[in-house]
Amino acid sequence: MPDPSFVFAQSLSGLTAAMFLFLIASGLSLIFGVLRVLNFAHGSFYMLGAYCAFQIVQWIGLDGGRFWLAALGAALAVAALGGIVEHFLFRHLYGKEELYQLLFTYALVLILSDVAKLIWGTQQKSVSRPPELSGAFHVFGATVPHYNLFILLLGPAIALAFWFVLQRTRAGRFIRAAALDRETLGALGVNVDGLYTWVFVIASFLGGLGGALIAPMRATTPGMDTEVIVEAFVVVVIGGLGSFWGTFLGALIYGQVLSFGILFFPRFSIFSVFALMAAVLIIRPWGLLGRPLK
Amino acid sequence: MMPSRLHRLPWALLVLLAAFFVPALGSRFYTFLVNDMVIWALFATSLNLLVGYTGLVSFGHAAYFGIGAYATGLLMKQAGVSFLIAFPAAGVVAGLCALVFGFFCVRLTRIYFAMLTLAFAQIVWAICFKWNEVTGGEQGMPEIPYPGFDWLDRIVSAMPFLGSYRTSDYYYFTCLVLVALCLWLLQRIVASPFGRMLTTIRENAERAEFIGVNVRLYELAAFVLAGTFAGLAGGLFGIFNRGVFPDFAYWTKSSEVLIMTLLGGMGTFYGPAVGAVALIWLNQQIVSYTQYWPLILGSILVVLLFVFPGGLAGAVIALWHRLARRPAGA
User: What's A125's DSSP letter?
Assistant: First the structure.
C-alpha cells in the first residue's frame, strides 16, 4: 500500500488537473451543446491563452495583481479571436456536412499553431507564479502550492457561475433554447446568429482563461494545443457531449484516473484514460450525464 | 468531342506505366518522393471506402496504418520473417483489429462514431508509445530491413538494356506493383454489388434497412476492408520510412489523410489518390521555402472547404462537364 501522504498528494494533483480540464472542456462542451460542432481549435485557443498571458506578463510584469490582469487580458484577446472566426468564417459552414466543420476547425489548429510559432518561436516559455500565491501549504506531509489550491477553488466557482448564467439569466435561457431548437427560437424573434457568435466568444474565453491560468504551472510550448484537445474530448465524452455537469464530472474522473493510473500502472495511465473514453462511448454514447441526441 | 475521347484512355494504366520509369531518371530523391506518394495514395483510397463511399467519417484511420506498420516492422526486424509473409500480415492484423474496433464503432452514428474511432486510435497510439519492450516506445523501431532483392537483382543484371538499380529502387517497384494491385482490388470492391450497397447506405441508411439490408454488417465489412488496406499501406510505409514510430497512429495523422481525401475529392475513386499526390508534392515544394507548412496546409484547407468542397476531382469533373456540354468547335 502506498504512503497515504503520497496518495493524498496524488489525488490533489488529480483534482487540480481536473479543474483545468474542466475550464477548457466546458467551453468545448458549450459549443457542442449549442452549435453541434466538435471544435478541434479549442485546444489552440487554450494554447494562445497561455502565450498571450506570457506576452502580457512580459509587458507589464506580474507583481501587485498584474498577473490577474494579464490572465484576463489573454482570455479576452482569445475570446475576441473566437468571435471573429465564428462571425466571418465558421458561420458559413453550419448547413454543411459535419466532416467539413470538423476539418475547418482542424485547419484552424494548423494555422494557429504556426502563427504561435511565428510570433513566439519554438522555445518553451514560462511564467512565474504570481507572488501573492507563490507559497505552499503542508498538509499530511504533502506540499500543496497556494496556486494549485486557488485553481481548486476557482474551478467550482466558475462552474457555479456558468450554471447560474445558463439557468437563471435571460441569455442563458436563449442559449439553452438554441441548443434544443434553433428555428423556433429564431421564429420567436431572437437573433440566433448573434447568439451563436456569443456562445463561441464565451467558449473561447474559457479556453483562453484555462491556458492563461496554466501558464505558471506548465511550460508553454507549441504542441500543447493538440495534446490538450484530445484530453478535453475525453472529458466531454465521458461526461456527455453538451452536458454541463457531465463535463464537471468527466473532468473529475479524468483527473483521478490519470493521477492514480500513474501511481499504480505508470506505463498505462494514458491508455486507461482512452480505454475509459471508449468504454463510455460503447456503453452510453451520450455520456454519463448527457442526453441522447435525436 | 475531345473530352469523351480523352475519357476512353486507360488513365490509371498509363500513370502506372509512367511511374515505372521514375527510377530510370536517376534521381534518388524523385524515386523517394513518388514512393511516398504511392503509399499515401493507397492509405487515402482506403479511407475513402469508408468516408466517401459508405459515409462513415472516421477520425482514427491512422490506427490501422500504424498497426500494419508495426506488424510488418516487428515481423521483419525482430522475427526475421520474409516480406512475402510480413506484408500480408500487416493487412491481416490491421483487418482483425478493425473487426474488433469496428464491431463497436458501427453501432454508433455520426459524431459518436467519429469519437469512438478517435478513442480506439488513441488507445493504439498509447500502446505503441508506452510498450517499450515490444514497440520500442517513444523512440519507435528504427532500422526496419528492406526485403531481399538479390534474386531480382540477378535477373535484372542478366537482362540487357535494363540498367542497374539500388535496393530502394527495387523497393519502389515492389510498392508500385502492390499498391496497383490493392487499388485494382478496391476498385473491384467499389464497383461490385457490395460497393453499390455501401453507396446506398451512405445516401439513405434508413431506406436500405427497410429493403432488408443488414446495414451494420455492411458498414462493418467496409470498416474491416478499409482497415485492412490501410494496414497494408502502413506495412509498406514502415519499410519505406526505415522505421516505425508511434506518431503513425496519432490523431493528427488521421486528419492528414482525411485532408488528402478531401483535397482529391471524396466519392470519386481516384480522387483521394490524386489528393495524396498533390499534397505530398506541394509539401515538398513548400518545405524548401518555408518551415511553416502547417500554416499553408491549413489555409489550403480553408479555401478548399469554402470554394471547392468537391476537392480537385470535383473541380475537374465540373470543368469536364462544362467542356462536354459545349458543342464541338464552339
Answer: B
